[in-house]
Amino acid sequence: MAEPKKDDMAMTNLILIGILVAFCVFLWYFYHTDITYYGLKFAWTILGIFDWSFSPGIISFWRSQIAQLASQPQNLKFEQLLEVLNKVGYFFIWIPIILAIRGIKLAIEKNKKLPKRKITVETLPWIMAKHSPAIIPSLYYGDSKSLLLNVNPPEHKGALNPEEWVEQHGVLINNELDRERCIDIFIKDLGTPIQSIQDLNEVEKVLFSIFAPRIFGKEKNFKESQQLLDSLNYSCHQGTFNEKKGYPTLALAQSQFNKYASEPQLAKWLEKHKYSRTFLHAIHKQAIQTGKLPSSQFRWLKGMDRGLWYALNTTGRKTPFIESAAVFTQTLWEEYASDMGYELAEPQVDEVVDGIEAYLRKVGILN
């Protein structure tokens, strides 16, 4: 559709103004007496508000004039009506003055409130990190100038696709998938076998400490999860891992771990889930039922335990990543076996291998 030209718009505006003026003239011509009478009555009434015994005599004089004019409204000219209404306006001149003073005051106060610090692309993330601690770890990863993860360091690179996973682990031999090798890799992805909460490693204990208040605590304890996360993220300013910055001080979680490590209900979870990552994936799944605990809140975990981070990043998803497929599948089997009153004798990761094999055939890598 063609846009109207500026000249056409100007002509349209002139026509609209002309119609408005003509309408006003029409009203004045056909309703002259009514307009002047009620206009004078309005002015007389307003002046009456200010006509006190101690008021200047000019107000009473103006009211008398208006009353005389109102006796013959049909003879009143437009200029005379405007002059009368203008006199009434003197009593309201303070309104625009006050509004002007207030506007000046607001403008001055606004200038005082303007941030004095320099805000740029480089400084904004650091400013926002004060309000959202989850940002802090990523400030120390990637490019220090742009503060973006666009340099893809090995410990923070993106998720592998099946083709990359197969190539990385060398499980494709003579156009055949080495299923036994795949099963061994996926079993390792499940984490270490555990019998008690003390079997978790230091990083895993921190994650347990984050999720535990949502499962074993009362509603008033739920906030402990976010409080611990914030403390861990703030500590990333000082903490290191493998001599790299941007990692938390894990000791901050010790007191909360001790608080929940002896929970009686814990035995049922450990009986159901026999591996560290399936256990944490399962309690994470339960913990998010009472509020959000996304993996972005513990972004530092990806550089410390990539397999566990992807297992927890998968929580709540319908399908897993290739790096979390074993944990995702095994957890479902553990829950199913427990519901049916059975105990799994060995890991159930064959379906994961079947899925990879089917995918590779679909894309033409396997015949």
Automatic annotation (TrEMBL):
Lineage: Bacteria, Pseudomonadati, Pseudomonadota, Gammaproteobacteria, Moraxellales
Membrane recorded as keyword: yes
Species: Acinetobacter junii CIP 107470 = MTCC 11364
Domain of life: Bacteria
InterPro entries: DotM_C
DotM C-terminal cytoplasmic domain mapped to chain residues: 182-357
Keyword terms: Membrane, Transmembrane, Transmembrane helix
Protein name as it appears in the record: TrbA-like protein
Residues that span the membrane, as ranges: 12-31, 88-108
